[in-house]
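User: Mind token order:
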Amino acid sequence: MKGSLKLLKLFVLMIALTACSEDDMGEVVAFNVTSISPEVGTVGTELTITGSNFPSDAAKIELTIGGAVAPITSLTDSRIVTSVPPGAVSGEVRIVANGVAKTAPASFTVLQELEVATFENLFAPQEGGQGQGEIGGPFTKFSFETGAVTESNTDWDIAFRGTTIAINGGVATGTNDEPERNADAGAVIVNGLFDEINSAEGLSFSQDASGAFAIPLGSDNGWYNYNFMTNVVSPIPGVVLVFRTHDGKYAKVEILSYYKDAPANPDGFADASRYYTFRYVYNPNEGELTLAN
């Protein structure tokens, strides 16, 4: 009888232990990580991690993205909301809690921020033209990656001479003193508001070819109008140039002025010309098409 009583007490104790809460016994059920959303973004991007059995106290969780500790801004049993911290690099999303470490099924890709800038007074002189002989002279080359004029024969994207714009893609057009093409750059003219052209997706890019530039020459054909009465070259409103760069990135450009210091009302007979001022958005991330500024 006494043996039976002891067995009964032991049985009751086992049931009680099994029923103990997390607060009484500590975590007894392992947590799981099932997904993250989104899987790409820049520093500061909000990231949601879903799973199950996450601890209820954020202080008990160490969360890292690409090796950088990330803050927890919201926490439930099945969801953690965080943001990509400064210093994060592309890599695993890792959670450590109560001595257990788990990683998300997908890694997170940290993108560089889009570069939004205005370049002023890019000088693009030319020899000859306007009744002064054959057009020639070197092109002024520009790199979106550095945001500067370059002398490189390979790491350039677009090049200017007078009103002509060349790209580092295609073949020689046959014009004098043009730069050698040695990459796969492309260009397309898009009509619309600069701020509303947010992606290069679906665009059909052209390249320089024998006898023709990807950006057509001449008044009303490409990026500008020429008024022979006032001798003024004016950017055509609503014309945006979208480029695939020499290394496969993307940029959009709006030319603002063809005159030094970008006067609001240029004097075609007095103001110095062949000085480009343009604004651009450059996406430095390989394979990324977004151009939202």
Summary: Residues 82 and 282 are 27 Å apart (CA to CA).
